[in-house]
Amino acid sequence: MQENNKPKINRARRRLIKWGSLSACAIGLGxxxxxxxxxxxxxxxxxxxxxxxxxxxxxxxxxAGDPIDAIPYHYVxxxxxxxxxxxxxxxxxxxxxxxxxxxxxRNRDRxxxxxxxxxxxxxxxxxxxxxxxASLLKLTKELMLRHSIPPSNVxxxxxxxxxxxxxxxxxxxxxxxxxxxMV
Length: 183
Ligand SMILES: [Zn+2]
Description:
This protein is α/β, with parallel strands linked by helices. It is 43% helix and 11% strand.
């Protein structure tokens, strides 16, 4: 029996070492990469409810290969269902300046050097509530100032070259956001 169990234990240990090393590299990279943030990518969650814990679980289910057990975005903005309307929340990915997992592998640079902001809601169906939009505008302006990100580097997920998604939805006011960021 012991002989049969051996490879299992080794596999588990190898996995632990692999993910442990990757996580350590990720944290090191996050801590010692000055002036790294170059883009801001806006998303919607495509669902009506959202908290950090809920999005952590969604991430575990959908992106099981990600060594970072945290939401894929750097910031979430609530819609009053779970998080408060306009409330900005973040996870340890943002707190440790780790890369994001919010765009596809075709755009690695947007994950490595792009801050992901996710608005809870489905803007294929609904309009963005005023308070939620105001929070997004405030947060985006702060991040642009803090990291010297130009308005041209603020995009919606599906408007990013190579991305095949409707995110952040047809009702998301991207043109308005671009105008408001210039003010
Ligand atoms: Zn998205």
